[in-house]
Design brief:
- By secondary structure, the chain is of the alpha/beta class.
- Helices cover about 40% and strands about 20% of the residues.
- The chain contains 18 helices and 18 strands.
- It has a 6-stranded mixed β-sheet, with helices on both faces. Strands 14-15-16-12-17-18 form a 6-stranded mixed β-sheet, sandwiched between helices. A 3-stranded antiparallel β-sheet has the order 2-1-4, with no helix packed on it.
- The longest helix is centred in the middle third of the chain and has 36 residues.
- The chain binds adenosine-5'-triphosphate and magnesium ion (MG).
- The site of magnesium ion has 5 residues, from helix 1.
């Protein structure tokens, strides 16, 4: 059980939450939904104690422990896999580290000896001697082989990283599990695995996600965060959607009835207020009129940004030729002799569970990484811009959004940039926010703004739908359908791929399949299934 009482939070003048009261109980899985920037991640940070609210407090059931699956998959890159998992139980991990430091000393004082025995005792009560074995069991259960346990986190592919982070969150069977967008960067198989896992988990789960299918599958409750308030619905995402639509409808009907009544009363008052014999009645009706209050219908704060990529120049026939490209990363040959040519109407989706190949290819094509062998050639009429899968490094800066975007703006003028930001839902002073405090979805909106400003005719987009709310995904989706240039992209969103791509490339560890087709046809095709089989 975890309870938030009277939670308010302000950043400067802006209130993110106002007097939120909510209780989460055992056996339930709560999905927290809301627009990008609504405050979901911040709320999880308040629940976990990472962030102090302006008012109010958080309480857990007696003796209960909470753990968090972090959103940032790259955070522990400099740590060993097994340590990352054990550190999920921070107290135990601290004891281990302090103990090790004492034993590593050359001059071991009497004081050190006493401290060491204190630590040993505490370590034993926490079942510390089993920690490594427990962590290893958990990792193995998640399909992370034993030889990987002593590798550095940075050496792991994304899908394994998230499994390690999940093992970290689960380590020591927490009573409350907090997950912030767990499906980001996961391939479909892993998402399915996670769904089953969460359905079987018996304690309290609170999960933030923008993925409807996922939410529908795992959640028993839905918590809608809008206008700084939280409303809880006993049901999954679809249930929330239906009931919130129904509520709006009922409110509209009730308002309509009240409006009719108001009109009737007003007419009466008007007709009879000058009439002495009826004036008493008119006065009482005036009072009745004053009492009627219309319910304010606040439309949801969810909004559609205006996404429109306009190339500065038309693209010629020569777009891109990739010839015999190879690249080995951490001993694994992720690109092996890859060749293909891109035509000037191509919108290519790179699909399949071997995502690291496309990510590496995009990094090379964007000039951020050198291939080991082979080369690629962009046509002279082309200009490309790149949407990286991991944007952490790009936003590690104290710049404001306006300053950050200025180098890419065709007009070096703050008013112009702010106007541009308005259509991407950064209103008023938002442009003066520092980029390093932005929410996941807000960062993506800034990255998309950069790409729109650049006016390129080729877009390289590695998972542009990650982090975005439903409205923004729709806008990006439509923007790319409309885009007259070339797109090379990856996504886990079926509809997104189906509506944009006219060509599919699938990388497998043993080669690639390349076909001019829609995604649905690709998935349905027996011929493609045979090819995939042959390569697996
Ligand atoms: N230190 C800060 N100073 C000012 N504003 C902040 C700070 N930290 C966060 N914010 C703002 O608070 C809002 C909520 O951020 P949060 O990350 O909680 O959103 P979110 O609901 O998780 O969004 P997303 O769906 O994009 O992940 C954002 O507008 C963000 O820019
Ligand atoms: Mg967030």
């Amino acid at each position: 059980m975890i309870q938030a009482s009277n939670i308010s939070l302000r950043f400067g003048k802006k209130a993110l939450f106002e007097e939120v009261n909510i209780k989460f109980t055992e056996g339930n899985c709560y999905g927290i939904i809301g627009a990008n920037g609504a405050g979901k991640s911040t709320f999880l940070k308040i629940l976990s104690g990472e962030l102090e609210p302006t008012t109010g407090e958080i309480s857990l059931g007696p003796g209960e422990r909470l753990s968090v699956l972090e959103q940032d998959h790259f955070k522990y890159d400099d740590q060993i896999v097994l340590d990352t998992v054990i550190a999920g139980n921070q107290k135990l991990y601290d004891i281990m580290k302090e103990k090790d430091a004492i034993y590593a000393k050359e001059d071991f004082s009497e004081e050190d000896g006493m401290r060491a025995s204190e630590l040993e005792a505490e370590f034993a009560t926490m079942n510390g001697w089993e920690a490594e074995a427990d962590a290893a069991t958990l990792l193995n259960g998640l399909g992370i082989a034993t030889e990987v346990h002593y590798k550095q986190m940075s050496e792991l592919p994304d899908t394994d990283k998230v499994k390690v982070l999940l093992a970290r969150a689960l380590f020591g069977n927490p009573d409350i599990l907090l997950l912030d967008e767990p499906t980001n960067h996961l391939d479909l198989d892993s998402i399915r695995w996670l769904e089953e896992f969460l359905i079987d988990f018996e304690n309290t789960i609170i999960v933030v996600s923008h993925d409807r299918y996922f939410l529908n599958k795992v959640c028993t409750h839905t918590v809608d965060l809008d206008y700084g308030k939280m409303q809880i619905y006993a049901g999954n995402y679809d249930f929330w959607y239906e009931s919130s639509q129904l509520m709006i409808k009922q409110m509209k009907e009730a308002n309509k009835k009240k409006e009719e009544k108001i009109k009737e009363l007003q007419e009466f008052i008007q007709r009879f207020s000058a009439n002495a014999s009826k004036s008493k009645q008119a006065t009482s009706r005036k009072r009745a009129l004053e009492k009627i209050e219309l319910d304010t219908l606040r439309p949801s704060s969810r909004k559609y940004p205006y996404v429109d990529f306009k190339p500065d120049r038309e693209i010629g026939n020569e777009v891109l030729t990739v010839t015999n490209l190879s690249k080995t990363i951490d001993g694994e040959k992720v690109l092996d002799n890859v060749s293909f040519t891109v035509g000037h109407d191509d919108k290519i989706a790179f699909v399949g569970s071997y995502g690291i190949a496309a990510t590496t290819l995009f990094q090379i094509l964007a000039g951020e990484m050198e291939p080991d062998e082979g080369d690629y050639k962009w046509g002279i009429t082309t200009s490309n811009s790149y949407f990286p899968k991991d944007n952490t490094a790009y936003f590690d800066s104290n710049d404001t959004i306006v300053d950050w975007l200025m180098p890419f703006s065709p007009e070096k003028d703050a008013t112009y940039v702010r106007g541009f930001l308005g259509r991407m839902l950064f209103k008023g002073d938002d442009g003066l926010k520092k980029v390093n405090v932005l929410s996941g979805g807000e960062k993506v909106r800034v990255m998309l703004s950069k790409m729109m400003m650049l006016g390129s005719n080729v877009l390289l987009m590695d998972e542009p739908t990650n982090h975005l709310d439903m409205e923004s995904i729709t806008s990006v989706n439509n923007g790319l359908i409309k885009f007259p240039g070339v797109v090379l992209f990856t996504s886990q969103d079926h509809q997104f791929i189906q509506t944009i791509a006219n060509r599919i490339i699938e990388f497998t560890p043993n080669g690639m399949i390349d076909k001019v087709t829609t995604y649905d046809e690709y998935l349905d095709s027996d011929e493609m299934a045979r090819k995939r089989q042959a390569l697996s």
